[in-house]
Amino acid sequence: MSVPATFRRGFVDALPICLGYFGVGFAIAAASVANGHPVWSPVVQSLSQLSGTSQGAISHRAVPGPPGGAWELALLCLGLNLRYVLLALALAQKLPPGIGLGRRLLVALGVTDENVALEISRPFPTGFPYLTGVLASSYLGWNAGNALGAIGTALLPASAVAPLGIALYAMFTAIVVPAAKASRPTLLCVALAAAANAALRALPAAARPAPVASMLLAGVGAAALCALLFPKKAEAAP
Amino acid sequence: MTQRALLALVLGVALANYALRVLPLALLRRPLRNPRLVAFVERLPYAILAAMVVPDVFSAETAGDARASAAGFAVALALSLLGRSLPFVAAAATAAAFAVRAAAGA
To answer: Between residues 162 and 181 of chain A, which touch chain B (CB distance below 8 Å)?
Structure first.
């Protein structure tokens, strides 16, 4: 296939991802603005990267909110997205050897769970044009959704949009539940993390960590404990 | 958090995420083999997300009303167990929260 044809093929194959990202981006941006974020916050975030989880983490803290907390939030995002290393490594196994550093720098922008799952499931070698087609498609959907969600919500009065805040928690739930349903150790891990965070937050004020710090402690602690108890072999595909 | 701190956070996280994506593609290229490390990295996001949800989802700040957010969370749990898609779960939970708030007359 010629270069434009393989680009188009990647773009078309990723259209279901594009549509899904439109819906998720719209909901995240709407919830973000309902939480007091300025319109530029979801827009700049979606333009600068494709990452629903870290955008959800940033959006679930109210702005303007209590001072500080940015470093804890940055670490939380890092913990949420360490898995990109696994995804990028899985994709690296599928890249033809001819893809140089410059092209890898561009392809890296499109490393998300959905894109990599599509790319490594293809029976044919997915070269640079195909990968950029997938990237263009998913980027378009994500940004269109974010822009419309942010602007649409900003046009409505703040009191009317307050219930939109639940959308973020609903999405977090929809990510966790299927994974916990599929694997016993993961179920134990998420139950432990939720219980540990609830316990930390119930401590007397003098001993209680800040909210984001306690999420990080509970999450890292639960994942570390479960990694020791239930190690896992790397799979060929995520 | 001020808007200035928010912008620094947003750009910092974008850079960090890009580094996580690009370094393995540019440098590492060999898959991770350590089973404990793989288990940790794979389950960490789920653990953190679970801690982000509980107990905050039961607070009044989440959806402007504690009953509305509890209803939204119940709908989200049920539909996720049924395997519905992310946008669908988000829309249905939000609709439930709006409905409960309207019924409560808020």
So the answer is: 162-167, 169-181
